[in-house]
Amino acid sequence: MFNGRGPCLRCLFPTPTPEVSSTCNESGILGVVPGILGAIQATEVLKWILGVGQLLEEKLFIADLLKMTFREIQLSQNANCPLCVHNYSLQKLYYPSKQDHGLHLDNYAISITELRRLLKKPSVTLVDVRGIEEHEAHNIGGQSLPLPELAQRLPELHANHLIILYCQSGQRSIQALKILLESGFSSIKYLVGGISAIKKSELIHLI
Q1: Could you say which of 87, 131, 146, 183 is the most buried, measured as most Cβ atoms within 10 Å of its Cβ?
Q2: Where are the alpha helices (DSSP H) in 22-150?
Q3: Which of 175, 170, 182 lies closest to 149 in space, CA to CA?
Q4: 63 CB contacts (<8 Å, ≥6 apart)?
Q5: Do 168 and 22 meet the contact criterion of CB atoms below 8 Å apart?
Q6: Which residue has the higher pLDDT, 155 or 24?
Q7: Burial of 64 (0-12, 13-18, 19+ CB in 10 A)
């Protein structure tokens, strides 16, 4: 996947952070941007295949479409880069391990079946940590508390309730889990795989 001859994004940002790795739904994006940048990427691929022109190798291409300006920053490969130099797996780079910095995720993870059972009990708060637009477009119920706002809106949660977190794939739920634990909440679970893991037949019985 990587030829090891040039820098990658991890050379510049060795450790993904919510600011760097946030989704378009969280950060916002103009609908035309993916099309414009996609056309540029496709052009680079054709240039590489045909062996013509000057490629954007070893460069960070920055496009400011609000000002319609483009610039390039020369990059060099980080000798300690975990991706293009040491070839660590994408799974390790982008997704937390079962034991993330001392946090045993298995202790907080629940399946769809467990979620259905827990929702029948009293004193349970279901929380969607995706963006508001995502929640309005499709959800399995519960309170909408977007991850970027969660730390400021903790007073809206009942500390004595079992709080069940969910998002699209489970990754934002894990970030929310850490925020709640650091803030003193102790009764927390998160839905493994998020709502993407819920089959349509299961969804009917869940809502």
Answers
A1: 131
A2: 24-27, 33-50, 90-94, 112-118, 132-137, 147-150
A3: 175
A4: 36, 37, 40, 69, 70
A5: no
A6: 155
A7: exposed
- E strand map for 96-207: 99-100, 103-104, 109-110, 124-128, 143-144, 162-166, 188-191
Q: pTM of the prediction?
A: 0.56
Q: Determine the straight-line distance between the first and last CA of the chain, rounded to whole angstroms.
A: 41
Q: Which residues contact 4 (CB under 8 A, 6 or more apart)?
A: 84, 85, 87
Residue appearing with tokens 């880069």: 81
- Of 54, 62, 64, 57, the C-alpha closest to 8 is 57
- How far is the C-alpha of 203 from the C-alpha of 87, rounded, in Å? 39
Strand partners, 100: 103
pLDDT exceeds cutoff 50 at 102 = yes
Asked if residue 200 has pLDDT above 60, the reply is no
Q: Which two tokens stand for residue 149?
A: 């706002």
- Residue 69 CB burial class (10 angstroms; 0-12, 13-18, ≥19): exposed
Joined tokens for residue 105: 């995720």
The amino acid at residue 25 is N
Q: Helix or strand or coil: residue 57?
A: coil
